[in-house]
Structure formats: structure tokens, C-alpha cells
Design brief:
The chain has 18 helices and eight strands. With 385 residues, it is α/β, with parallel strands linked by helices.
Length: 385
Amino acid sequence: MTRTDDYERVSLEELAERAKDASFFCVDTEFVRERTYWPVWSLVQIAAFDAEGRLLACVVDVLDERTDMKAVRSVLYEGSGVRVFHAGKQDWEILWRHFAALPSAIFDTQVAAALLGYGGQCGYERLARLRLSVEVDKAGQHADWQKRPLSDKQIRYALGDVVYLAQLYPRLRARLEERGRFLWLAEIQQALTDAASVEQSGEEAFVRLSAKVRGGEEARKVLRRLCRWREERAKKLDRPRQWVCSDVVLVALAKLRPAGFDEVRNCRALGGWGNNRRMVEEVVSQVRASEHDEKVVLEEALVAREEERSLLSVLRALQRVCSEEEGVAAELLGGQAELVSFVRGGEAVFAKGWRYEIFGRRAEALLKGQLGLWVEGEKIRVVEK
């Protein structure tokens, strides 16, 4: 790891005292999750500037019984300082599970990067290279964070994640404010950090897998039920989702809609899983219960009809043009579901606000025949009619 600006490694208590009035705190966690549903929290790293402008950083061993978790909570939650993360979804999941809340003011540098033209999934090391001209050694990300004692290399790696973050945040925030996009960030993060997003319900898996189920409304109702069932069972057993029931099996069962034990066992995708009578009974119970569920409203917005695909391709091309012109990741302007809903006259996230100004207005003009796309060499250009 290339050296960054000097920082002082301190204890949690010293950081809490010297940086109590800091305007922001950079936070990262280390955890192990290969064999469990819930991440096994091992470390939390925090960095902040003190009143003299000195960068302070600490590593807290969460597995150490002597660690004062009330002090950890105080630093992470109290005061008005912004808590800065990079791609913080799993960090937020950890904090939510342990403290039943998230910090009130959050800034995610990956979301900021997406709003500034670095792509929708810009990694921490790439962002540090582009914005700070440093190379971050990510070899430590696969370390066994549960093993004690931690090596000096592990500790340096862990500290680096928040020390560089402390330099990225002011640069990214200033750039967002210069371009009038800071409120855009707040809007996106509000959706990412609400309770429904942090508390996994299986809905995300349903959305992702729904397009693979072509069995109509009844099959999708079964799929939604099974996704929720898998999520709750994985939580209860504290095992990875795919260990409880793979995506392939969920889709196969949704298509089959088994009414009894023998029908489940006849599903070839199950393998030996079909011999677990209790699991099979639970699946059959979910299938039967789905018959009384309301219509899956999301269905029509997920699967494009044959006659819509050409228009959707043109809309996606327009979306890419708008994304490149404005330096905003295309993913932030709306996904497949929104595009299909828009084509059918329904609601779409880009039908209002800043997304409308960037993309929605042109998308409307395209559907009205007032705008077209022109291919010129390797570039696509927008043509007003």
C-alpha cells in the first residue's frame, strides 16, 4: 500500500475525545460470512480529524470481550458528524443487527462516485487510484479476520481503508456540491438505508429471479413466497441463502408448483435436498398458501413482451447517451423494471426530479416521436425532430 498522508493511530477512547467535534467520521468493518447468513463482525475501523487537523485512526476488535461496545456505539452514532462509508450495504447490515439503527447522516463514496461519472460500482481501490493517485493493496480483504492475534499487515490494511476514505470524502463532497448534485446523493441514500433495504425479506431475490420464471402469475406468486421462506429459514439457521436453497431450485420449484411430497422429489434440480421431508413439507405449504396471495403487481414491470424489446433497446441506448453526457452512472437513471413500466404508461423513477431533467424528458420525447438517435461511427447522437 502506498503511503498516504501521515496519521496517528490511537485508541477508540482517545479518538472519541480528540475528534468529538469532527465534521465527519470514516467507518469500515471487517467480517467473515462464508458459512453464515449473518456476517460475523470482527473489526471496526474509524478515522477522523481532530481540532488541529491531525488525522486519527483506530482499529477496534469487536471479538475482544473487553471492548466497550457502548463506546463504539457512541462514536458511530452520537454527534452531528457525517459517517462516511464506501459501498456500505454490508456495513449497515452489521450495524443494524447490533444496534438496531443506522447513523443519522451517511455518505457513501461509491454512490458519490456513480454521480460523478466513475461508474455504478466503482471499487475503493479504483477510486483511490483515480482521485488520490495511490495504489491500495487489497490482498488483505480475504484474510481470516476471526483469527487472533491479528498481524501487523492485517492492521495496516484495515487502517488504510478508512485513512484513504478520509481524503476521498472532502474531494467527492466538494465536487458534488460544485455540480449541484449533493441532494441527489441524499435521495439515493435514503432509499438504500431505509429499514426495508437493510432488513432482508427475500424481495431482492424475487426481483432478480422473477424474469426467469415464465409460468405466468401463479408461478411468480410461488416464487415470491419461496424467496421469503428461504430468507427467513436462512436467518433462523444462520446459514447462507444458497445453502438453504439455491436460486436454481427456487426457480424450478416456482415453475413446477408442487402440490405434494412426490412432486417435489421429482424436481431434478433438488439433488439430495428432496429427501429432507420437513423442508419439502414447508415448500408445499408455501405453494398452497400462494394461491390466496394477491396478484404480483411487479410481474408486468419485470418481463418485457416481444413487441416491446426493440423500443426498450432504443431507450437503453438513449439512457447511455444521457449517462455519458452528464457523467452519471446509467444504473442510477432507472433499471429494466422502470423502463418497461414507462413504455406501458406506468410510473418510473426517472419521471420526476433530477433524473427527469437528465433522461426522463428525452425519453418522453422519444416515445412521442419528437426525438431520434443517430449512429455516427462508434457514437450515438440525439437528434431533435
